[in-house]
Amino acid sequence: MNERLSNKERVRIPRQAMPEREPEQRARTFEEVNLGLEAALAAREAQRCLACVDPKCAGGCPVGVKIREFVALVLEGDYRGAAAKIREDNVLPAVTGRVCPQENQCEGACVLGKRFTALAIGNLERFVADYEQRTGEIGLPPVAAPSGKRVAVVGSGPAGLSCAGDLAVRGHAVTVFEALHELGGVLVYGIPQFRLPKEIVRQEIANMRRLGVDFQTNVVIGKTVTVDELLGEEGFDAAFIATGAGSPKFLGVPGEHLAGVYSANEFLTRVNLMKAYDAEHYDEPVYDCRDRVVAVVGGGNTAMDAVRCVLRLGAREAAIIYRRSEAEMPARREEVQHAKDEGVRLLTLCNPVAFLGSDGGLLTAVRLARMTLGPPDASGRRRPEAVSGSEWELPIDVAVIAAGAGANPLVQSTTPDMGTDPRGYIAADPQTLKTTKRGVFAGGDIVSGAATVILAMGAGRKAAQAIDAYLASGSW
Question: What is the 8-class DSSP label of residue 366?
């Protein structure tokens, strides 16, 4: 038990590795790569926690999970209690335990990491969340008495789900509107099955239904019904807009119109929601990757998701093209390593200047320029600069552009009295997430631009607190 070990003994325990499928087995299957900790491994990892009086890890969590307390419950073998402790602040523990960039958040703040390796907080979170689902012992928080107030949440991604869960616990009647046919937003259309199984998202949404949240699919706010109508004849007292940043960005180079060039948004949506990962039962609804050479442009998590998908769709070769070095890649280190282990080729310090095609309009190659790194830009990373006379051509059959995403404009365009910023994102107060329209709040990627799942969830929690206060006071 943790209390029987001295700090000196705790720091001698090595971080317990996450079991995973072997690269040669997993690179051609959409089965989950990480297998989860067994109880013995989880207990051993939990023993490493120093139980700090001032836990810096909790300060590094955007949703404020009480990490020290839940880890202590893991040590006691009270896994349901540990899950319930997490659910006080996080409505999606089985999701965040898999896809949250803990190394930059809670684990990045862990004092163990200063001299040793940080506590595997994410792996422990996944362990207790998976225990819940396996046993059916869900540690849901108590729900307050009905307030008589109704809130519309637009979008069922991480920001919307987090906000909806917190509002439901406070006793408000919440309806989540989703434009697509499946709930989960980017969790289901953007993240592949091998990293976040769809069933995990469905289970977490089922848990939210148990809290009283109502979900409506195939409702496009701005088309099916407007925000004004939600607050008017539909009878909602407040609305939270969490539609995400779903408008794909391209490179603006010649040849992007060729057949075989995708945006990562389109590509991953087709793979995930149209079930290209289940070729046994569904016709593959993407340009055929089998025995093809595929290049993905970008260095973030979306790029890694896309390139690992094309391997699983049968590509002969798969490469990442990134204009900076591997060290500057914004993707999680684990995802980059997994891609490399699976056989993905990294073409760093390269940038497309044109896509080339056949007379019939099919992609045949990409022309690349070699890059060098100059002074830091606004992101703090060194600015890539083209090397004169360095262009070369790489034969490819498919290209996927993972260069980021912009604001989905539909809600803004149909809500004229709701302000936007110069980039087209909804303007919201950074503290309260209030928009310029009374009763309407907004958060997540539609306000901040594309970010992480956990940061979107943090925005959802902040919005729920502000919405609750507004419903109680009526003051704007």
Answer: E
Within its chain, how far is the Cα of 47 from the centroid?
Answer: 29
* pLDDT range class, residue 179, cuts 50, 70, 90: very high
Question: Coil, strand, or helix at residue 385?
Answer: strand
pLDDT in tens, 254-306: 999 999 999 999 999 999 988 877 777 887 677 778 899 999 999 999 999 99
CA-wise closest residue to 407 among 349, 378, 447, 438:
447
Contact 236, 230 (CB under 8 A): yes
Strand partners, 275: none
For residue 7, the model assigns a pLDDT of 87
Mean pLDDT of 91-116: 94
Domains and CATH numbers, the chain: 2-135 (1.10.1060.10), 150-246+407-473 (3.50.50.60), 248-405 (3.50.50.60)
Q: Calculate the alpha carbon distances from 312 to 24, 97, 294, 364 in Å.
A: 11, 23, 12, 21
Q: Which pTM was predicted?
A: 0.93
Q: Kindly report, residue by residue over 201-245, the tens digit of the pLDDT.
A: 999 999 999 999 999 999 999 999 999 999 999 999 999 999 998
Instruction: State mean pLDDT over 90-103.
Output: 95
| CA 306/CA 55 separation, integer angstroms | 36
Concatenating the DSSP letter of every residue in 221-287 gives: BTTTB-HHHHHTTT--SEEEE-----EE-----TTTTSBTEEEHHHHHHHHHHTTTT-TTTS---SS
Beta bridge partners of 239: 152, 440
The answer to whether 467 touches 240, Cβ cutoff 8 Å, is yes
Q: What is the dihedral of CA 423, 424, 430, 435, to 10 degrees?
A: 160
Length of the chain measured in residues:
476
Query: Torsion over CA of 421, 422, 423 and 426, rounded to 10 degrees?
Result: 10
Give the separation between CA 311 and CA 404, rounded to whole angstroms.
Answer: 21
Among 397, 343, 335, which residue's Cα sits nearest to residue 366? 397
